[in-house]
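Q: Entry one of two.
A:
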Amino acid sequence: MAATTLFLSSLILLILAQAPAQPQAPPPASDACNGIFLSYSYSTGRRVPPILKSDPTRQAYRFESAFSILNNDLQDLKSWRVFVGFQHDEYLVSASNAVLADGNSIPGSVGNGTVFAGFPNPDLKTAIETAGDLTQMSARVELVGTQFGVAPPDAPMPSNISLVNDGWVCPKPTMQGNRTLQVCCTRDPKFKSNVTINEEFLPRQNGDLTIVYDV
């Protein structure tokens, strides 16, 4: 009996040793990005009243989604701004950790796309100066709103997501599955800045407001 038990134990160990090892999960796409990594993900949605069976293209649906921005560059990203190309007549109800860069208020219509600016933390530090602390290197913006015409299980994805800070270029984003849009933005080698790293204030950009006070 003991010999039989020993034989079976040895056989099981031999089978386990010859079994193919489970492949490791691939590293996240952000690991391959040595710049600014952007990701937009759709979470969930549902139909909201009124129910328009006669015109499904105008049927309203709640959507919940989020986008994230991660600084994998060697320098801090000051006053980050991200464009999200909404294309389903979206009406934005709430956004965490960001405001609309054009000064418009939330709730409001963003159906033609909009630029978000980081708030209350507009700057993203590097991995080097934070020892890889993602809470200082990245930001996540959770969105809730209403879109029209895209019924679940289809996902109302934006047409584009990109970094609009001066000096950066973003290729066309790629879909990961049906609910995630990703892109890695890198520094524009042709861009010449008129500000040094040690200066406190950023150079003028499109959309800046100049206030003059005269006595």
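Q: Entry two of two.
A:
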Amino acid sequence: MRFTLRQPLFSGFREFAAMASFKADRRKEEHLRDRASKLLFLDVARAFYLVVRIDKDMENLDAFTDLTRERVRELETRERLGKSRRSEILNAESQLETAQAQKAQLGGDRAAAAELLSFLTGIDAARAVLKDGLEEVAPFDSEEGFLARAGGRSDVRAQEREIESARQEVRLARGAFYPSAGFLGNYYAKRVGTQRNIDWDALFSVDLPLFQGGTARALVREAGSRLKESELRLQELRRDIRREVREAARRVNASVAGSKRLRSAFEKAAESYRLQVGEYRLGLVNNLEVLQVMNDMQDRKRDLDRALIESKVHWLELKTAAEDLPEAP
């Protein structure tokens, strides 16, 4: 019976390189997880504002329906007085039925959007009352601050850790050119023959890699190629991030400018409708013109609300691109 102890003493620092590579890979995965959480936040925000947009469309459609009902009642009163035709009432009632059909369609769209939000959050969004607490987005002059913050994004740090891991892989491959040393010791509980009086023996060994058929050199070149590839991916990622931030910033400013124009258009459409109603009662315009102006006012209100919501989504896209988001509690 014998007990054996094997202890490697030196192997070209390959163990240290392997441990450093493993630690870099672990940090890389942590950074990728952080980036994934930011992208999940953006997915949730998009789903949230999709539901908010549909709710706003339904709210505007309810207001439009109320105006149309009021229009029908006025026309019925005028018909009894002989001031309006039955066809005018039917025209308004047709518009009312169309609005009801649109509301039913929006109800289905809302259910589908709420289902997506529930899937992403685990909350029953179909019954939840969603409140948009984000202030109206204001324009900004420069995206340089966002570009500076985006330079330290989680996926950039993950790619830097990948480069560090690849660099350690090169060191690991180069370790094959170094000699290795080891210790081997044996302890014998019982021996027979000429060695019965020898309880132990030990061996120190040194291996020199004189020729390996080019295998070690090929492994070093392969590891070096992976390192170069990782460095190029980092350069590409940084260019993509700058492009992503700049495009997001332009979308924000464009949507904010569009919202400003649409607000003015809605205000003018609302004033035009108010004037048209008064002119109709004076017999200056017909009912069809009033309905057309009312439809135009409804369209401008819908466009304005959608543009305001879209600007908030673009703002959150910019904040996510720059990774300028508050930390989760």
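A: Comment on entry two: The chain has a mean pLDDT of 86. The beta strands are 2-10, 180-188, 200-207.
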